[in-house]
Specification:
PRISE-like_Rossmann-fold, single chain, Rossmann fold, alpha/beta, 13 strands, seven-stranded parallel sheet, SDR family oxidoreductase, NAD(P)-bd_dom_sf
């Protein structure tokens, strides 16, 4: 049977890796964005605004996907606005596709804020869940745009008869220029600035994160899980955590990342040193470095998202994710986390995004 994929967010970290995975397996693959990119060979661009139903109807007139992958979101100033806007994006797309009756499966990517709370109340004392985080843990009694997105998928599935899967990664490690949540590239840019200026590669986060156990999600791993869940009967209508499958302590990994760049590692010293403050004045320096080393992206804000890295590394608890559910159903992909970072750093250097 012909498989036709529509990826929302195909230019992002997850979406671009998913597009490559699907295309390599012979899927006809469309990528929807307001301004589609052409950096994935074989991806068919669809230009549309998810907040404009008329735009969607026109753009999707000749597209009848069998599988829809929602890997994108739009950040707003408040959680109430996040709910309104991101819920509408999912609803508008699935409403536009409903008359075609072609959709067999919809996959939605959210994340660990499902368990830890949204940006407005992220990982606050009194609402912290037990770890390792497991899919059966209940929703928090607070507003969360992830819940709104899920509810839109559930409602459309009940109406149109397709199956669904929800995917909850931890921090995504992978390449994408302009991404709002990009720890790996942020740390690579920070380390490059440290090397250029002689600054120490200072741990920016909390003691709990420095000493506690953690995990992350390689973009290539979640891409494989998305395809697995979309094509595996036993995985239908379920939510899945997705991480690399190993645990680490930042106190172990941080010096290894520093060594890759040849910079001095400075660990937790009793004080949080937010990257957003540390890098606040580095945009002019990065433009100078881009000119000196002939880098392809001279604007720091297009590569680094220190606010989000601070959010992740400043949490007051260790964060581990249980992967038992999908393992039992047959998803066994594993990725060593230090190699996720090193592979990314090498790719960033090859693509002339860091010196």
């Amino acid at each position: 049977m012909t498989k036709i994929a529509l990826i929302v967010g195909a230019s992002g970290i997850i979406g671009s890796n998913l597009a490559r995975e699907l295309i390599s397996q012979g899927w006809t693959t469309y990528g929807l964005a307001r301004t589609p990119k052409d950096d994935v060979t074989g991806l068919r661009p669809v230009a549309a605004d998810l907040l404009d139903p008329a735009s969607l109807a026109t753009a999707l007139a000749d597209v009848a996907p069998t599988h829809v992958f929602l890997t994108s979101w739009m950040r707003q100033d408040t959680e109430a606005e996040n709910i309104r806007v991101n819920g509408a994006m999912v609803r508008n797309l699935l409403d536009a596709l409903a008359p075609k009756q072609s959709v067999q499966h919809v996959a939605l990517v959210t994340g660990l804020k499902h368990y830890l709370g949204p940006f407005d109340s992220y990982a606050r004392a009194g609402s912290l869940p037990p770890t390792p985080l497991r899919e059966e843990q209940p929703r928090l009694p607070i507003e969360n745009f992830y819940y709104a997105q899920e509810d839109e998928v559930y409602a459309a599935a009940a109406r149109d008869g397709f199956s669904w899967s929800i995917h909850r990664p931890h921090t995504i490690i992978g390449q994408a220029v302009g991404n709002l949540m990009n720890m790996g590239t942020t740390l690579a840019v920070y380390a490059s600035i440290c090397k250029e200026t002689g600054r120490p590669f200072q741990w920016p986060g909390s003691e709990a994160q420095w000493n506690g156990l953690s995990d992350v999600t390689d973009a290539r791993v979640i891409a494989k899980q998305l395809v697995w869940a979309a094509t595996t009967e036993a995985a239908r209508n379920q939510a899945f955590n997705i991480t690399n499958g190993d645990y680490f302590r930042w106190s172990w990994l941080w010096p290894r990342l520093a060594a890759w760049f040849g910079v001095e590692a400075a660990g937790f010293d009793g004080t949080v040193h937010p990257l957003e403050a540390a890098m606040a004045n580095d945009a002019p320096l990065w433009r100078e470095m881009a000119a000196r080393y002939q880098l392809n992206v001279p604007e720091l804000s297009q590569l680094a998202s220190p606010w989000h890295t601070d959010l992740d590394l400043g949490r007051p608890i260790e964060v581990m994710t249980d992967m038992s559910k999908s393992r039992k159903l047959g998803f066994t992909v594993y990725q060593a986390t230090e190699d996720s970072f090193f592979d990314l750093f090498a790719q960033l250097r090859t693509d002339k995004l860091i010196p």
